[in-house]
Amino acid sequence: MPEIRFLTPEQEALIPEYQEKWKRISLTTQPIEKVRAAAAIKGVYAVMGKPEPNVVFCSSPRAALDHLQAQVSQVDIPQNPRSRTKEDIQNNFIQFFAEAAWETIKQSNKQQNAGTKPILDLLMEVSVESANSIETHIERCLPKGLSIQDMIEQTVLNAAPMIDLMGKHQARRGDPGFSKMIKMILDKSPEDGRESFSDMASAALEMQLGWIPGKEFLFRAWLKKILQGILIAEINGMEPPRFRETLAMPLSLAEQKYLVENAVVVISEVVYQCSWLDFAISELNYPHDAKKWAALQGLVKYCGWVFAAENLCIICDRPTQILIDDDYQLHGEGEPAVQFADGFAAYAHHGTPIPEKYGTVHPQEWQAQWVFEERNQALQEMLVQSLGAIRVCQELPLIEVDTLQEYTLLKLKGVGVNDTRVLKRVKAETEDILAVFVPWHQDTVRSAINYANENYSAEDFPIPDNENQR
Known about the structure:
The protein is of the alpha+beta class. The chain folds into 2 domains: about 10-80 and about 90-315, no CATH class; about 370-465, no CATH class. Helix content is about 50%, strand content about 10%. The strands form 3 sheets. A 4-stranded antiparallel beta sheet has the order 4-5-6-7. A 4-stranded antiparallel beta sheet has the order 8-9-10-11, with helices on both faces. A 3-stranded mixed beta sheet has the order 1-3-2, with helices on both faces. The model is unreliable at about 95-110 (pLDDT under 50).
């Protein structure tokens, strides 16, 4: 069945313009204009039928937290909770579970009563109206009487651009075979006689769910939701920079908890929503409340982070520096990825928030022993990838998994990232060392060589002569 497209070629050609427009807004470092910013906040509260708040300006999120503690009596940022050992949790699991559940309930209740709720409600109302219109749009485009196999096939076909994008991101992060692997699994017309993914998935679902009356109707509803998400993701493009997580890194755990409970509005996240909303309203002519859409755009264009409690609304100034990589992710090398005029700064490495200890040092000078000192597994993985496969071979303890002629498949020993695999080749004629990371499921040297040959370099990682038959 041919792919069903939900946008015309002309509409698809306009998508990059909207992505670029809102990307520029999210990365602006111009100081906010206080008069316009105050008017934008008051406009949001007015359009949502809420009393006008008192507006205060601060130079950074750090300064905003300090101001709240000083000015609002109800704001009480607690001390850091005591850390619990693994033994504590095991010996008092029921108590620990009950406390965690109660904390989740309290956090949810606080979010529902957060001072920023009018802003979040505005975003929700504008987004839901357009999302419903997209679902209706998809329903009109879908032919009647689609089989379950047709529905799965359409999901695969429409997801292909996003898979390509994910593959490019993964390639930059050391896994060039990700996109190829996914495409092989989802291939609509395999050349080796295998059944396609849609054939296998359809057969499995028919076997397990064939008895359900009206299953085609249920799957059609499922398909519409999936396609809705794919279409919105296609319009938005790349994921937004992780400002919230990055700027939370220098804060204490208690302060981070406060940010979550009080639903602080991070403008870059709202910008990401506005990208597809702008396209849907401007190009697809979806119905919308013009006043609310204008209020939402004013908030994004004229404000920085927004904190609110009671009738007080604090607007942070924009950063003076924002550094990103080719994937539109926060990234600084030996300097802050985000910095504010008052000196508050945060660090990130290709989108991963990192502490100042790493951020102030250029990645080329990062030390191998940090991998063992670090307790956060995500940061361990980031450090390992940044060191590179050759340095990992030379400076970290490894366990030999398998060998073949010049090749050795290795895995890390004694750290939290034990699934990391390295294929090492020592050239017999020169004793030069070549090494690359391979996915954790490459558990034999033969499969690792094939992976490196196909996804890195056939010249650097040739298949041994007696291994050509496979």
